[in-house]
Design goal:
The chain is globular and about 40 Å long. The protein has one domain. Helix 6 packs antiparallel against helix 7. It is built from 8 helices and no strands. 72% of the residues lie in helices and 0% in strands. By secondary structure, it is mostly helical.
Length: 165
């Protein structure tokens, strides 16, 4: 494996040494669209990397993220997801699944902040997702997940830049 280990990458993200995908210096709509994929993308998303995380929860999170990106989110969407994530967290039987549910809880908090007109970060959710994958898989698989997450973000930004041009 080339480059830093997933543990070192997680540490560098947490310390702010490297920029996370979907960082707060980018447009919120692009970020929320990427967060939708972080949960539900069938190639690299959390639901694929941690198959114990329920597809229905990933899809609901993705729908809420996309609605937030398009500014069509309903007031009820995010509190319902908060309730779902609390129930999932209470019944999670592995650390990987606990981190997956914690990521969703963090995204719900970010959505609440965003919908109230406040800044939101998203880093906590990203860190939790990476930790969930790291707890579930060997480092080589986690490294691929991290690479795919960054590649998806790069595509998101390139698409945004092409539309703006």
């Amino acid at each position: 494996m080339t480059g830093p280990s997933p543990v070192a990458q997680l540490d560098a993200l947490a310390r702010g040494i490297v920029e996370a995908p979907a960082s707060d210096c980018h447009p919120a709509a692009d970020r929320w669209t990427w967060f939708a994929d972080l949960y539900a993308d069938q190639t690299w998303g959390l639901v694929t990397a941690v198959p114990e995380f329920p597809r229905i929860a990933a899809d609901q999170a993705a729908m809420a993220c996309r609605a937030t990106a398009m500014q069509t989110a309903m007031v009820e969407q995010w509190p319902a997801l908060e309730t779902l994530s609390a129930a999932g967290l209470a019944t999670a039987n592995t650390h990987s699944l606990k981190m997956a549910w914690t990521a969703l809880t963090d995204t719900c908090i970010d959505a609440r902040d965003h919908l109230a007109g406040n800044d939101f970060g998203g880093l906590e959710a990203i860190l939790c997702v990476i930790e969930a994958v790291l707890c579930r898989h060997q480092e080589s698989i986690t490294a691929i997940f991290i690479s795919d997450a960054y590649a998806a973000w790069d595509r998101q930004i390139e698409s945004h830049d092409r539309k703006a041009a």
